[in-house]
Amino acid sequence: MSRPPNHEFQEWWNKQRSKETADDSAAPSTAAESLRFLSVDVQAPASPAAAAEKDRSRSARQLSWIYLLKLHKIAHSFAFLTGGCVTLVRTANRRIATAPAGNRAESKLYRIIKLFLALSVFLLACELVAYFKGWHFSPPSLESEIEDSVEYVYAKWLKIRADYLAPLLQNLTNVCIVLFLIQSVDRFVLVFGCLYIKIRGLRPVAETDYSGDDEKEGRDLERYPMVLVQIPMCNEREVYQQSIGAACVQDWPKARMLVQVLDDSDDTDVQNLIKAEVQKWQQSGVNIIYRHRLIRTGYKAGNLRSAMSCDYVKNYEFVAIFDADFQPGPEFLKKTIPYFKVPTFTLGCNVFCPLKYISVCKGKDDLALVQTRWGFVNKDENLLTRLQHINLAFHFEVEQQVNGWFINFFGFNGTAGVWRIKALEDCGGWLDRTTVEDMDIAVRAHLCGWKFIYLNDVQCLCELPESYEAYKKQQHRWHSGPMQLFRLCFWDVVHSKVSFLKKVNLIFLFFLLRKLILPFYSFTLFCIILPLTMFLPEAQLPAWVVCYIPGLVSILNILPSPQSFPFIVPYLLFENTMSVTKFNAMISGLFQLGSSYEWIVTKKLGRSSEADLLSIVENEPATLHRSSSMQRSSSESGLAELNKLEMAKKSGKKKRNRLYRKELALALILLTASVRSLMSAQGIHFYFLLFQGITFLAVGLDLIGEQVS
């Protein structure tokens, strides 16, 4: 008897399923085989139990591969972090071992920071004990019976900090928040003023133009005023050639210009090199002289005052000042002098010419200063120079431009500017009573009624300090000097004849808000109050003060240099780190402490010296009286001197990166506070304290800027 059709179909189906199960036990070797098996699964009907078993095995394999991939990523990240930590520890150990010991006395601020660090560590230890005993979740109270003496002490501490310490800290916090908001509003107003200038296309207008004279066969020399160019320098071995060369190739009649090289160097080798450079340009027909003071008092101000006392200075009407690392373009004088002088023509006569038009220069007689913008040849050299460029771009693009346009006053930057000599004499000349002689003379000229103009489209190249040591010393001088000046000239401002609004601007905006309040609240709020609020949680510092408003202000600061937006977070953290230096300088200048009168010349590296020298030789004007062969030999000898100097620098005493104790102590304070914040699950505060502490640690170990050891 034949089998029923259903029975035959069942036997065939069982054979097919057994074959698929055997094939499925081995993983597919190729992607094509995988697709074939998937297509079979889709097309062939399967029993629910077999399909579930097959899906279970496939899911197990997929999960295994996913876990292996995640494990590989974790291992790679762990190895990267471990390598970075090991490198950091090795660098720290090396710099701690090679750091000079006991070469400087501890400052008062450092002793206070050390005391604060000891207090932070002690409070963290107490909080850790309380955390592991569970007192964070159910705080003990003095009203209930307490048998444990440690628990009683902790309960007493909770009452003292809640009733006495937290209210005081909260009041100080509120004061700093108000100052912070006022300063933030000032930043917003400056940015809006800059936007208004940009949108309206506002800029100073010169009534005359000297550029057309190049196309003429001859120049009317009487149209060109007498200009004195001063280059003060002190031991500027690396950059003296580029500044002298840039000044000597100015496109200005040689008979109407004199270059003064004011050398205060105490190194005889540097003096001889500068003398040789001056003699080379004298042989080329340039009016240039070399001056060296025997009595070097008053630093840069004394140097400039001595140069202005020369008898021949009375023959000159304007003076352009360039520091040793500045490289003005050949058109610098042609782009700045026209704002002083407006040539007009009047009908006159004399015994030689009965009737003719005589050129008379009439101009803005109340204009004392034309300041130009700084450009930087090494702004992309390292992270430190990038962060400096953000600050200085905002200073020139926003602060100087807005103040120059709306109130015709700003702080003279000490270089890359042209002064009317009559204005310098009218306000008393250069004084060495502070370390900011440029700001001093600008304030006195403003009180005498003189006006300033800022040219944002005229740029003068210079060099940024590439090491943190040089930058820190520069910032200390720049922030202690204004407080010295404020203390000395406060009553002069009050009793001056300028308008009431100008007095308010000088006292409250120029000095107090931007020179005193800014470093005060930056250091106090983010380096002292924020860590304390972690140990005194009854005092609150809102998250918008810690994160949102500083972030918005940082965005405003970075707007003039939009290419620096990737560095906005390092910029915010680094500015808070620099607050300790600025605060220390501000206090020392305000209370006449010893370090406030410390003047140290900012170290330059002269990275562009050779290229600038070549460009100067190529752009030497045709009015030079020597042959091209002599020029080539002079430039070659200059390059040879540069090469010798480079070899001398390399064979000299080896520099080392330093350790900065205040920054390291503050790093430990912030990291200690971050641990306490983590125990309280405060997200934004924890991350800010953690990253700010790491930034302080990197700066304290001198890991930012030039690495020389």
Automatic annotation (TrEMBL):
Coiled-coil boundaries: none
Q: Name one Pfam family in it.
A: Glycos_transf_2
The molecular function terms of the Gene Ontology recorded here are:
glycosyltransferase activity
What does the UniProt entry say about where the protein is found? Golgi apparatus membrane
Instruction: Indicate the transmembrane segments per the record.
Output: 112-132, 172-197, 506-535, 684-704
Task: Kindly list the GO CC terms recorded for this protein.
Answer: Golgi membrane
Q: Where is the composition biased (Basic and acidic residues)?
A: 1-10
InterPro entries noted in UniProt: Glyco_trans_2-like, Nucleotide-diphossugar_trans
Q: Name one GO biological process term.
A: cell wall organization
Q: Does the keyword Transmembrane apply?
A: yes
Q: Segment Disordered: which positions? A: 1-30
Query: Which of UniProt's keywords are assigned here?
Result: Cell wall biogenesis/degradation, Glycosyltransferase, Golgi apparatus, Membrane, Transferase, Transmembrane, Transmembrane helix
Membrane topology according to the record: Multi-pass membrane protein
Q: Domain Glycosyltransferase 2-like spans what residues?
A: 230-343, 359-534
Identification of the protein by name: Glycosyltransferase 2-like domain-containing protein
Give the species: Salvia splendens (Scarlet sage)
